[in-house]
Amino acid sequence: MRVIYPGSFDPVTNGHLDIISRASKIYDEVIVCVLINNSKNYLFTMDERIEMLEDILYDYNNVKVAKYSGLLIDFAKENQADAIIRGIRAVSDYETELQFAQMNKVYSGGVVETLFMVAEPKYSYLSSSIVKEIASFNRDVSGLVPKNVANKIKNKFN
Q: Rounded to two decimals, what is the model's pTM?
């Protein structure tokens, strides 16, 4: 089974890595899809986000990183994905993700499923936005993101 784990990953967090790691143990292939969301202001360029993910995920044999600028469901169809993985931290995530899941189901002709993975409790508060907020006050984020990402964040804010 081929699944897609989409996101902006700006920056990738330990919570993202937990979902990727768990998904890679369950599914034959995981495509981490870095999407462009025109409503977001990014700290890192698309190329920087791809590079960080590839550095972190180099030893995952069944995980690959891709980028896409259109609708996720089109990417899923083009890559013959069976499902889309979404991480859920709280009820508010579920409400938002449910709408996207239903839309994707309709636009895939009922073919592509959305599967929710509940965040580990130690990551249930963690988001890229929180990491950027903390870093903007020159605080240490090394416990929230991989080491190479923490260094890149520090460089962005210095």
A: 0.94
